[in-house]
Amino acid sequence: MNISIPCVVSLTWTLQDSQGETLDILDDPVAFLVGGDDLLHALEHALEGHAAGDTLDLHLEPEDAFGDYDEQLVFLEARHRFPAELEAGHTIEGHALPPGCNPEAPKDALFTVTDLYPEHVVLDGNHPLAGISLKLHLRVHAVREATAQELEQGSTGVGFFRV
User: Fold this and answer.
1) Closest CA to 9 of 157, 158, 152, 142
2) What was the pLDDT predicted at 157?
3) Whole-model pTM?
4) Which of 40, 81, 89, 157 is deepest in the core (most CB within 10 A)?
5) Range of the domain at 43
6) Taking the mean position of all CA atoms in its chain, how far away is CA 116?
7) 3-state secondary structure of 160
8) For residue 97, what is the domain's CATH number?
9) How far from chain centre, in Å, is Cα 43?
10) Of 56, 41, 44, nearest to 7 (Cα)?
């Protein structure tokens, strides 16, 4: 079966930045819904027509991957508003930000704590891979029809680098 929308593909990959630094390796095949919310659109487009056993080498510019880095999504907040156990790397959903935080912070964003200072916390609402050109070596392990449940959900339950 060739990949077409909608279907489910099982993939492995090696993801690198444009300098060749490995960012992620997926050794065991994972199933993704093509035509749903699981994969980047550029990735789905590149996969169309391929079949199990095929390999692809892709180069994705930020606009085809996780977007350009948006400095408007970085917020400096008062440290006292957050729990003492907060650490760099923690994530906070925008709707769960403590009272008193900047009302401009989007409620639908996922913020990563990038820096902690005695008086401030730096929150970044950009995807961690925003602004980065990516190289992706993919292998298609299997292709099958999507189930009614997968089509209804728009997903197999796994997303491509969702944080």
Assistant:
1) 142
2) 82
3) 0.82
4) 40
5) 7-66+131-153
6) 24
7) coil
8) 2.40.10
9) 12
10) 44
